[in-house]
Amino acid sequence: MHKKYYVTLLISVSLFVPALVHAQIDSTLFRRAENRDSLNNTMNMDAIYNRPMLSAGKLPISVGGYMEANWQHIGQDGVSQGNQFQFRRFTIFMASTISKRIKFMSELEFENGTKEINIEFAALDMEFHPLLNLRGGIILSPIGAFNQNHDGPKWEFTDRPISATQLLPSTWSNAGFGLYGKHYDDDWMFGYEAYVSGGFDQSIINNEQGKTYLAATKSNTDRFELSLTGQPLFSGKLAARNNRIGEIGISYMGGIYNRYVDNGNVIDEKRTLSVYAVDFNTKIPHIKTFITGEWAWIKLMVPESYTQQYGERQQGGFVDIVQPVLQRKILGWPKASLSLACRLEYVDWNVGKLRETGDNIGEDLWSVVGGLSFRPNSETVLRLNYRHQRSRDFFANPPVLLGGFSFGISTYF
């Protein structure tokens, strides 16, 4: 039923969009990203609104979206499945200014064709004051920066960061409510977000991966209407940005993840989960180098009956370095650019030592991804990447080697 509904909605939107013309709902919310310097007055928390949208006249709704398609040839320890072609994402944005200081924004995503259909964001914002705004609906937790600022056309790599998709659950959203606000002071901007929502469940330590794995909870679609713990998940973030220096954010997400009460009877102790993250992005003047990074720490209570295979502590992150090498008119595109890119990644799913021997636990991964990207405009990117990756198992045996090329395209529409 749900898939049929969304497919019908998609067809309706597809027929409707050609009749639209480029415009804006509200210049303080929606703008076209003609070049990255135009986004100096925004922060990561504004990512859901900083997207090109389409509107027509006095119609009450604006529409936009993006798509991603890739080719890959990846091998692991010398064994490859050959050429693989992937249509990873087709995402639709729909927004409306309901009245003065009351706005609605939504993000509907189709992944891997129609294998997965998710409402990643669908929330109503009510502005009482620039420092006090109410948000309610399906919200994106502001943990790190990538979770909110994840649109494919913004990145120079075909794959999302491993730490943001497997250590943290990428595009982690849930039903909830909260407050957010911003303050401007010349070149400085300060922002905060604080939400309560539905949370994680015991699948993070009871899953097919056989390890502590927060992303396993995303497969529980009932989380949008039922919380097994009956306790809210809190997520919050403080961020500061200087137009000449960059932006730094500190965030936290935590709560109880296990069902400890059944029909009023206590059946288990409360087991907590805490996630801390720091993110930073900057642009080096003159050479215009973009640097974006994020690091997260996870700590949770694991039952004593579980083996050390399920880690109580995890950590990981990434750093992206993007260097434009050519910005000029190319093949008729007046503001085209060519860039070199590099991503450094590390994830440790089980921080600690073996109780029996005192040796370090493995279960870690690092990778280096090099890239070349071409942007005919700021909303469309063609990217060629090469990945070199090494991962170790729980017992820190010799690493599994993975490497290969990928090519992809991504664009807003």
TrEMBL record:
Keyword Signal in annotation: yes
Signal peptide: 1-23
Source superkingdom: Bacteria
Protein's name according to its UniProt entry: Porin
InterPro entries, per database record: Porin_dom_sf
Keywords, alphabetical: Signal
